[in-house]
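hiii, so i know i said id send this last week but things got crazy w the move. better late than never?? heres the sequnce for the chain we talked about at the cafe, plus the structure i predicted for it. fair warning i was half asleep when i ran it
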Amino acid sequence: MLRRFPRAGAGLFALGTALACSACGPGPVREAASRDGDAGAQGLSLERISVLTSLPIFWNESSDIAASLSGDARAHWALAALDGAAGEVLALDTLSALEPGDVGRDVGGGGDVLVLAQPRALSASENLALDGWVRAGGAVLLFADPMLDAHSIFAPGDPRRPQDVALLSPILARWGLELFFDPGQDPSERLVELPEGALPVRLSGHFAQVGTGGDPRAGEVRALRENAGRCRIEAQGLLAQCKIGKGQVLLVADAALFDDPVSDGPARTRLLHGLIARIAPGH
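okay and structure toks below
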């Protein structure tokens, strides 16, 4: 069953005020789509997927609160895809409650897999909590787009607008990575072939491991920083898969996958399930 939760502080967002509501007790606002059969093909049967995102995956973009949470609009394909991979999908508004001892437990955060899809900038306490949770055995799929150009009805600076630029340098540095962006690249969308399928990207970034010396953009890493993860860089830096302590993190330097809420579901669903399967416990 998919349980959907309203974006924390939605009423205050309508007034132009961003509020982290970690103490709120969110309740389900509707039951949604049936389970997608593609999850079975990937062998995914997770208890829970928790999601922190600035993208309109759990709500519809609208200046009206009721319309943004309305069950009448067609659900984002990614929402149905996540539902097809887990018994429960939780929308988070903070990572501060993550604790190393909570890995695999129902604590309203983390669950079996944590998906961070173009999240807002994380606070210092959230960075510490996330790092500790991963090192204790947590699994994270992170989409970090350095130049998100998806259409939004909200103007730049509006807190309801998706995060335009990934601001995750502190946690990336902790894991021994840096996200780079080439402003001279072709701005048109292209497909990058991955083992899981064709990933649509547009104005993407690339990851590089950061060492104690050398130019990471040129692949010059003399020695990894202390506590850095052991990372494999793929697809010319578009992906990085890292073993960090006892945990796993898969990072994607683009979020165009989620741009079209009613896009060709089956192909993108299989791709998303495949990426989750890489890091899901027991897979």
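btw The longest strand covers residues 46-53. thought thatd interest u
miss u guys!!
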